[in-house]
Structure formats: structure tokens, C-alpha cells
């Protein structure tokens, strides 16, 4: 629905243009091509190079990387691929002289990399940054034999796969690195690429993989030692620890068992002799060796610890049995320890699940505390990398605080283990995070916790000044510099009547006390997931049609009050903006959207159409852009009838939810501050918008919509007769009702048509069934 090359679909990125103008990525494998795609997502032109292809197709390997990213969702919009030019290292390496940043993502062999660096250094521009995406090789090893000039501009930038999705970026420098280069690459990571940047010390595996690979080794080997099955180990090592449900064996299958000799083998070659990881050397495990001998490499092979298809290609749900070494049906774990209410209680149980949980965690916390001083400045850096790099809910030190650092130390001492100094310091201090604003540095000292103080947040504004006004559902906060913030703080920022009440009072409140308004919150998951259905359904169930019309009209007036207020309104949209939330966004003067914002009007799936001005505002945007009323009406019709959610800000722009002068940022954390800056810039000479006029498209639009729906009905597998009925009502609204084509109608005329449509659809039993089903089951009914 939202794919395709529509002119003007790509929104400008809000960033400092002096940070980076262009980049070169060398290596078009999954990581290199993914990095190139994400640079393009940030609006940075990229040259992607790989080895030369055969014959005349010399750029084919690099082009294959682009094709892979287009198929796998590496680009936020297909048109962004046009920012990536392909080439090969033999013909095109001299063009690295044009780049501000050159990223190397080739095979993990220091000799191969250093040979490439020498060639890069011969052609690059003075002051250009060169970085490696290595995940295991120390920076000092990569720099052996390289000049001081090159070393000053060289860093490790370790992305995680896939680069578009994974938020973490580890940056490694050495004393030879120019501090200005370190600062600049950190800003590029945060402000341009939208990453959470963690500065790591130059040690094997840096932070995430040093600890993560150790945890994986321990979790695999201890499961087998203690006699747990694949399912039991994954059940213990997932939900109780706040780890994804893949657990350990599902993760190993995803990573690929064939990488164990390469990745874990590299660790075994370079780790110090006394490193605890050597006691859990997965590379010499005989069962793993057996699986690799049989070609059982994991999810992308014929099977791994789990198998989804048997030898004949039939779908199965099987796991490997550690005793028979054969596949069997997956079984539901029946460990009593899984019923424990918290992790500490689980570890205190007496079954093998409890023994496993303690065995893995005790090794993890000992290792993390032992190596922390060598790899990171404080415990927050390590917790952040494990949360973002491995998708854990909590890092190891936060997890230890939940369990109790003093309890952990006492149990380890009773078992005869040496206690790392950092762990002992935590037990004495009252935890690794002894107070909300305090944490431990890795030398054991207590220091300030400023990890969350980098960007503006609603929580910080609330603590500093308190709310200006509000209720349990929404608050008005003072952002400073004369800008107010409307913060919705219901579950998923859903809109209820309390939210409407606060918004109704905003025009007067802001006009008296501020000069601009931002709508946004700290909730990265949702700008607003839509209006709550319970009040709507209550009116329908009681056949209170006047009450229903008053309810819809109230929302229209509240949202319109913001649109025509005498001050600029900026919607800071991150996460989901659905239904009534999307309609609220559509009434703002400007939108500043996180690049991964997901915007849509799914009302057709609950049997109705948007009623708080969503149909009208989407049509208005389309008429402003396209001019022709029928073409504009059909674009709005297709988007609303599809009821799909645009999967990025650029796709939302293509659908018409965002205007050409709206802006995108890739850094979620900086969204509110950037929105305040934008709102302030709009205050000079601001005048309230004049009431909008729209042109009726008339019968031509209704006929076009009817033909489209009928064609889809006859094709089968698409909309139902219920959907066709909704489509007819929707087309009537978009056409301007019964007005003749070309008639100029006020915005309020279309709002009236929206309300009439809601009344008509809400009386239909099929729509009522959809509404009730969604309210009760939180999923749509395709009746």
C-alpha cells in the first residue's frame, strides 16, 4: 500500500549538515550493506564498494547488497536506495577522497583489514574519519604498522545487525585517537544515525560481545551439565531474566552454530589466560562439534537446537534431544521453579531449573564485575550495551540490584568463590545503583548517574517545575523559552475523555502563558495509540445516538481548537500514532517525526471511519498537494480504506499523513528538544490559520472508489461485503456528500459528513460486531 516511488515521499532530516556530507562503506555483506542503507536512511549519500564481480558486472557484489537490504527492510523507504551508489574496490577506491567517513566492514582478518587501510590512507582526504565495524578485533591490533596520522582519524564503530533496527553503537578509541575525531563520530552516531552510543575501551569483544558471548557459552554448557532439555533451558533463560523468548538455544540457532569456531574461537585465541571465559570454552564442546559435523547450523540451515522442517520439507516443531542426539517433538517445560514469582525466589528453589538459573547468573555477575574495570567506565555503560545489543530488559548490574547484591555476595562466599571488588563494593553501597541519581563507576566508587540527562524529557520537566495543569490522563508542562508541552500519560497514550478535557482548555491556557505548544511524551512506543473505544461502544450499546454525535463533535472541536489556535503547534511523533492519535497529529501546524514512527487510521477494521477530523484533514492535505479533487480523494480513500499502518515516517509522508515541510529525526531521545526548537522558530510572525475550504469531487470519486472495491471483491481474499459498505460511506464523505463536483465546501461541512457517516455505520450490526470484538479481544473481526 505504501511502497513505490512517489515524488516527494522522502522527508528532510533535521541534523547539523556540517557533521557529515557523504560516506563510503567497504564490504557489501549483511552488515556493510545494512550500514550503507542506514546512512541513506539518515539522508547521507553513500558509495558502497565490494570486490569486483565477474566479467562486465564488476559492481554486481555491491549491487547484491542493496538488493538484499531492499528485500529485508534495511531502507525506511525504497526511494532511499537512490542515495547509495555501488562500485568496487579496484575501480572506485580513489573516490574515498570525496567522503567524510569511510567505514570498513570486510572479513574479520587483521591482515586483510590492514592491507585495505593502507590503500585507503593513500587516497582519503585529510581529516576524514576511517572506522572498522569489527566486533572482536582490538583496535590496537588493527593499527599495527599504521601511521600516527591514520591512527588519529581511526576508530571502531561496531554496529549491531540489522543496523536500521538495533539502537546500540559501540565506539572504541585509543590514546592515539584525535579527541575531536572521537567527539565527531559520537555526534554522528547519535544525532545523524539516531543511535545510543557507548564508548568502549579497547579490549577483546569490547562490551556487548565480551559479556554476551560469555553468557551464551555458560548458558549452553551449564544446561547440558545440569541435565536440562532445550525447552527447559530456554524457559528459564528467557522470561524470568527479562531476556527474549528465544532464550539461549533459540538465540544460538539465530546466530548460527557455524560461527562458534570463528567468533568464539577468536575469543579463545586472544583472551587472557586467566579469563573466566576459558573455563566455559564452547568451542571444544563435543555435542556442538557433533551438530556441526552433521551440518546442523541453526535457523538458516536444516536445523539446529530447534528444527522447523524435517528432511522431507514438512513443517515440524522439534528440538534436539541431548541424550539421543535425535530430533523429537517440542514439549512444554514442567519445572516447578518456573512458577516462582521473582528471580531470587527461582534461584532459591531445589529443582534443576533453579540450579541452572543460579549457575548461569552467578557466573555472569562474577564475570561482569571482574572485567568491568577493563572494559567500561561505569556499570551503566555495561547495562546499556546488554539491553540494546542483546535485547535484555535489564543489564546484569540492574538485574543484580533486583536480586540483591548483598544476597549474591553471601551465597557466592558460601560456595567458596572469590568476590570481585566491584561486586563487593556494590554489596556495601546498597547496590550498583544505590540511589536514583547515583551509580558505581567500575573502580567501585559511587558517582553521579547522568545517563538520562542528555536529552530533554517530560519526566525531567515534571520534576523540575511540576505540571502547569492537567489530570490523571494528560498534563501541560513548561518546556522553557515560552513553549508548553502537552504530555499524554495514559497506557500507550490512548485518548480518553480526560485527555479531551485537557486539550479543550489548551487554546486559552497556552495563549495566556506561552507562545507555542509541543505535543509529545517520553513514551517511545506511542505518540498515541488511538482513542479508547469504551465510551464510543457504550453510546452504541445504549442506542444513544445524540450522545454519540455529541461525543464525536466534541473531539472534532477539541482537535480543531489546536489547529486554529493563535500559536504554533508542533507534534513530536515517536512510535505509534493511530486513529484518534493520528487525527490529533493531523491538526498540528508541523510534525517532527521520529524516522521509525508508525502512523495510520485503522478505523475501517472496527467498522467505522475516522471521525475526529481524520478524513477531512487527510483529504485537505491531498488536495493541497495534488490539486485535482478526484485524485486527491482517491489517495485519501485508498489510505483510509486500507487501514494499514505506515512503517516509517517516509512511508507516512507518501500516504499523505505528513506534509513536505514536516521533518524527521533519527534520534528518538532528542525528539522533544528538537520539537521545542522548531516550535520557537515558528513563533516569529505566526498567524492563526484561516478556515480551510475544500472542493467536492462529486460522483466521479464515488464511482472510482466503487469500481476499485468491486474489483477487489471479485478477486477474492480481500475485503468483505461489510468492508464494501464502509467504503461506500467513506467515498460519500470524501466526495463532499451530495454536493456537485467543484463546489467549495467549508472544513466544517466535511466534519458534519464524518459525523453523519459515524451515525450510519454505528447503527449497522456488522459494525457493532467489529466494535465489540475489538473492545473485548483487542484484535479486529473480519466479518
Automatic annotation (TrEMBL):
Positions of the 3-hydroxyacyl-CoA dehydrogenase C-terminal domain: 205-307, 361-413
SUPFAM superfamilies linked to this entry: 6-phosphogluconate dehydrogenase C-terminal domain-like, ClpP/crotonase, NAD(P)-binding Rossmann-fold domains
Alphabetized GO MF terms: (3S)-3-hydroxyacyl-CoA dehydrogenase (NAD+) activity; NAD+ binding
CDD domains reported in the protein's UniProt record: crotonase-like (cd06558)
Catalysis performed (reactions): a (3S)-3-hydroxyacyl-CoA + NAD(+) = a 3-oxoacyl-CoA + NADH + H(+)
Keywords from the UniProt entry: Fatty acid metabolism, Lipid degradation, Lipid metabolism, NAD, Oxidoreductase
3-hydroxyacyl-CoA dehydrogenase NAD binding domain ranges (all copies): 24-203
Domain of life from the UniProt record: Bacteria
InterPro entries in the record: 3-OHacyl-CoA_DH_NAD-bd, 3HC_DH_C, 6-PGluconate_DH-like_C_sf, ClpP/crotonase-like_dom_sf, Enoyl-CoA_hydra/iso, NAD(P)-bd_dom_sf
GO BP terms, alphabetized: fatty acid beta-oxidation
Pathway: Lipid metabolism; fatty acid beta-oxidation
PANTHER family noted in UniProt: 3-HYDROXYACYL-COA DEHYDROGENASE FAMILY PROTEIN (PTHR48075), 3-HYDROXYACYL-COA DEHYDROGENASE-RELATED (PTHR48075:SF7)
Name of the protein: 3-hydroxyacyl-CoA dehydrogenase
Lineage, highest ranks first: Bacteria, Pseudomonadati, Pseudomonadota, Alphaproteobacteria, Rhodobacterales
Amino acid at each position: 500500500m505504501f511502497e513505490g516511488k512517489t515524488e516527494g515521499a522522502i522527508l528532510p532530516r533535521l541534523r547539523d549538515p556540517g557533521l557529515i556530507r557523504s560516506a563510503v562503506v567497504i564490504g557489501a555483506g549483511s552488515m556493510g550493506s545494512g550500514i550503507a542503507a542506514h546512512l541513506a536512511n539518515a539522508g547521507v549519500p553513500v558509495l558502497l564498494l565490494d570486490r569486483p564481480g565477474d566479467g562486465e558486472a564488476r559492481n554486481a557484489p555491491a549491487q547484491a547488497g542493496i538488493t538484499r537490504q531492499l528485500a529485508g527492510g534495511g531502507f525506511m523507504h525504497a526511494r532511499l536506495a537512490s542515495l547509495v551508489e555501488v562500485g568496487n574496490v579496484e575501480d572506485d577506491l580513489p573516490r574515498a577522497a570525496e567522503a567524510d567517513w569511510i567505514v570498513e566492514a570486510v572479513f574479520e582478518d587483521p591482515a586483510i583489514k590492514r592491507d585495505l587501510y593502507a590503500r585507503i590512507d593513500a587516497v582519503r582526504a585529510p581529516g576524514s574519519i576511517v572506522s572498522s565495524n569489527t566486533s572482536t578485533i582490538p583496535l590496537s591490533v588493527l593499527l599495527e604498522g599504521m601511521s600516527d596520522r591514520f591512527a588519529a582519524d581511526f576508530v571502531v564503530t561496531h554496529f549491531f545487525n540489522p543496523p536500521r533496527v538495533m539502537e546500540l553503537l559501540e565506539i572504541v578509541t585509543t590514546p592515539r585517537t584525535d579527541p575531536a575525531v572521537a567527539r565527531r563520530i559520537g555526534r554522528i552516531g547519535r544525532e545523524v544515525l539516531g543511535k545510543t552510543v557507548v564508548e568502549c575501551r579497547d579490549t577483546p569483544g569490547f562490551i556487548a560481545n565480551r559479556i554476551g558471548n560469555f553468557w551464551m557459552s555458560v548458558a549452553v554448557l551449564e544446561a547440558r551439565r545440569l541435565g536440562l532439555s532445550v525447552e527447559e533451558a530456554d524457559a528459564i533463560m528467557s522470561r524470568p531474566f527479562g531476556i527474549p523468548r528465544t532464550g539461549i538455544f533459540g538465540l544460538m540457532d539465530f546466530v548460527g552454530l557455524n560461527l562458534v569456531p570463528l567468533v568464539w574461537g577468536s575469543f579463545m585465541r586472544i583472551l587472557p589466560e586467566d579469563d573466566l571465559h576459558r573455563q566455559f570454552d564452547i568451542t571444544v564442546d563435543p555435542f556442538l562439534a557433533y551438530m556441526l559435523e552433521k551440518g546442523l547450523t541453526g535457523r538458516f540451515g536444516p536445523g539446529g537446537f530447534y528444527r522447523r522442517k524435517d528432511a522431507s520439507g514438512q513443517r515440524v516443531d522439534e528440538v534436539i534431544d541431548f541424550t539421543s542426539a535425535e530430533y523429537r517433538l517440542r514439549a512444554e517445560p514442567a519445572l516447578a521453579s518456573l512458577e516462582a514469582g521473582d528471580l531470587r525466589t527461582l534461584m532459591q528453589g531445589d529443582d534443576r531449573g533453579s540450579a541452572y538459573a543460579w549457575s548461569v547468573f552467578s557466573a555472569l555477575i562474577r564475570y561482569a564485575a571482574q572485567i568491568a574495570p577493563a572494559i567500561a567506565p561505569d556499570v551503566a555503560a555495561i547495562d546499556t550495551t546488554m539491553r540494546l545489543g542483546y535485547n535484555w530488559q535489564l543489564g546484569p548490574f540492574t538485574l543484580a540490584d533486583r536480586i540483591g547484591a548483598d544476597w549474591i555476595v553471601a551465597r557466592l562466599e558460601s560456595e567458596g568463590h572469590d568476590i570481585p571488588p566491584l561486586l563487593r563494593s556494590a554489596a556495601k553501597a546498597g547496590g550498583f545503583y544505590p540511589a536514583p541519581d547515583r551509580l558505581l563507576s567500575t573502580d567501585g566508587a559511587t558517582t553521579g548517574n547522568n545517563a538520562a540527562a542528555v536529552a530533554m524529557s517530560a519526566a525531567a520537566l515534571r520534576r523540575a517545575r511540576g505540571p502547569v495543569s492537567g489530570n490523571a490522563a494528560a498534563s501541560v508542562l513548561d518546556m522553557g523559552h515560552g513553549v508548553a508541552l502537552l504530555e499524554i500519560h495514559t497506557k500507550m497514550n490512548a485518548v480518553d475523555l480526560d485527555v479531551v478535557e485537557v486539550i479543550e482548555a489548551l487554546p486559552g491556557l497556552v495563549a495566556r502563558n506561552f507562545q507555542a505548544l509541543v505535543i509529545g511524551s517520553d513514551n517511545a512506543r506511542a505518540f498515541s495509540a488511538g482513542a479508547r473505544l469504551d465510551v464510543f461502544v457504550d453510546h452504541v450499546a445504549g442506542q444513544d445516538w445524540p450522545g454519540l454525535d455529541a461525543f464525536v463533535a466534541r473531539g472534532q472541536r477539541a482537535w480543531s481548537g489546536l489547529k486554529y489556535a493563535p500559536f504554533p503547534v508542533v507534534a513530536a511523533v515517536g512510535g505509534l500514532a493511530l486513529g484518534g492519535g493520528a487525527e490529533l497529529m493531523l491538526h498540528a501546524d508541523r510534525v517532527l517525526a521520529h524516522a521509525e514512527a508508525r502512523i495510520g487510521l485503522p478505523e475501517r477494521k472496527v467498522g467505522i471511519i475516522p471521525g475526529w477530523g481524520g478524513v477531512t484533514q487527510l483529504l485537505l492535505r491531498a488536495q493541497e498537494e495534488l490539486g485535482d479533487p478526484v485524485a486527491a480523494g482517491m489517495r485519501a480513500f485508498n489510505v483510509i480504506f486500507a487501514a494499514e499502518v505506515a512503517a516509517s515516517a517516509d512511508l507516512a509522508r507518501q500516504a499523505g499523513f505528513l506534509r513536505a515541510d514536516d521533518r524527521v529525526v533519527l534520534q528518538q531521545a532528542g525528539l522533544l528538544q528538537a520539537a521545542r526548537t522548531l516550535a520557537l522558530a515558528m513563533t516569529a510572525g505566526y498567524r492563526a490559520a484561516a478556515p480551510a475550504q475544500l472542493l467536492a469531487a462529486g460522483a466521479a470519486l464515488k464511482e472510482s472508489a466503487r469500481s476499485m472495491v468491486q474489483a477487489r471483491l471479485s478477486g477474492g481474499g480481500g475485503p468483505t461485503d461489510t468492508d464494501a459498505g464502509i467504503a461506500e460511506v467513506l467515498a460519500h464523505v470524501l466526495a463532499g456528500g451530495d454536493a456537485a463536483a467543484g463546489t467549495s465546501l467549508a472544513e466544517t461541512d466535511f466534519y458534519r459528513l464524518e459525523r453523519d457517516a459515524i451515525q450510519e455505520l454505528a447503527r449497522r450490526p456488522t459494525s457493532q460486531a467489529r466494535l465489540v470484538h475489538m473492545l473485548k479481544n483487542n484484535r479486529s473481526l473480519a466479518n
